Amino acid sequence: MIIFSDALKAAFDFILPQSCILCEKEIEQGMICNNCLEYLPLVNPPLCTACGRPTKDRLRCAFCSSEKPLDRGRAWMLFIPPADKVVHHFKYRLKTRLADLLGRAMAGIIKADHILSQADVLTPVPLFWWKTLRRTYNQSDILAGIISSETGIAQKDLLKRTRNTRTQTRLSEEARRQNVRGAFEVRGDVYDKNVLLVDDVLTTGATMSECARVFKEHGAAAVYSCVAAITPDRPHGTRSNRPV
Ligand SMILES: [Zn+2]
Ligand SMILES: [Zn+2]
Fold first, then answer.
1. What is the pLDDT of residue 57?
2. From 91-100, 164-173, 235-244, the region with the lowest mean pLDDT
3. How far is the centre of ligand 2, averaged over its atoms, from the C-alpha of 196 (Å)?
4. What's the half-sphere exposure (Cβ side, CA atoms, 13 Å) at 196?
5. Does residue 91 contact residue 139 with C-beta atoms inside 8 Å?
6. Is 139 helix (H, G, I), strand (E, B) or coil?
7. Closest ligand to 20 CA?
8. Ligand 2 midpoint to CA 237 (Å)
9. Residues with CB under 5 A from ligand 2 (ion)
10. How far is the CA of 39 from the CAs of 81, 103, 148, 223, in angstroms?
C-alpha cells in the first residue's frame, strides 16, 4: 500500500506543474530552481585525502585519522541544509528524477579527477534485498547507472549485502563500524582492479570502509568512493561514543 501511494505520487510528479523541492517556487522543468541550485553547499578543497571531506589544514579528516581504508574519495555537496533535503527527496520519496542532477554532478567530479577517472569498474553500495523491495529502488544503483553512462566506466554489481544492518543514524562511530562488519560479500573478480564505490551519502565512512576492506581482501589494487553528499568534518580529538 505504501509502495502504491508512493508510486502514485511519483506518477503525479510527471503530470502536475512542478515546484522547486526547496523553495516551492513554480518551475518549468527539473526539481530545483536555478536560485536554489546556485546556493547548494558544494564541497570545496582542502579535502581529506581518504574520503574527500573538506578539512582544515590537514591531510585527513577526523573520521579517517586512525585508519585509511579508502584510497581516495570525492563528494559533490556537504550534507547540511538544504542539501540534506535534496538527498532525502531522492532517497525516500521516489524523486528519481533528482538522480539525473546528482548523478551528472558526480560524473563531472569523477571526470575531472585524475585518479577516480582511471577506475576500472564502478559499483553501487547495495541495500539488503528486502530494503530494496520495500523502497522499490536502490538509490546508489540508480546513481551508478547514470555515472557509468556519463563517464564510460563499466558498472558491475560487485557487492552483496549478506545481512540486514541496523540503521546507522543513531549509532556512535564505533557501533557503526561493528554494525557493518562482515555485512558485505564480494561477487566477481576484483583482483588488481581499481574499484569505484558509489553511494548517496557518506557520514562516518563506516560502510564505505567495510566495503573497501572486503575488496582489498579480494586483491583490489585500490578502492575509491564518490558520493552525492558528505557530512562536515569535526574537530580532531573529539571521537566519542555519542551518535554523530
Ligand atoms: Zn528553489
Ligand atoms: Zn576522511
1. 77
2. 235-244
3. 16
4. 32
5. yes
6. helix
7. 1
8. 14
9. 48, 50-51, 53, 61, 64
10. 10, 18, 27, 31
Q: How many angstroms is it from 233 CA to the middle of ligand 2?
A: 8
Check whether 241 has a pLDDT greater than 50: no
Q: 52 CA to middle of ligand 1, Å?
A: 27
Query: Grid coordinates in use for 84?
Result: 540534506
Burial 218-237 (b: 16+ CB within 10 A, else e): bebebbbbbbbbbbebeeee
- pLDDT over 70 (residue 181): yes
Q: What share of the chain is helix, strand, coil (3-state, %, to 5)?
A: 35, 20, 45
pLDDT(236) > 80: no
Tell me what pLDDT residue 1 has.
42
Q: Give me the pLDDT at residue 95, please.
A: 64
Predicted TM-score of the model (pTM) = 0.86
Task: Compare 2 and 73 and report the one with higher pLDDT.
Answer: 73
Domains of the chain: 40-230 (3.40.50.2020)
Q: Does the pLDDT of residue 242 top 50, yes or no?
A: no
Distance 85 CA to ligand 2 centre (A): 23
Which ligand has the shortest distance to the CA of 31?
A: 1
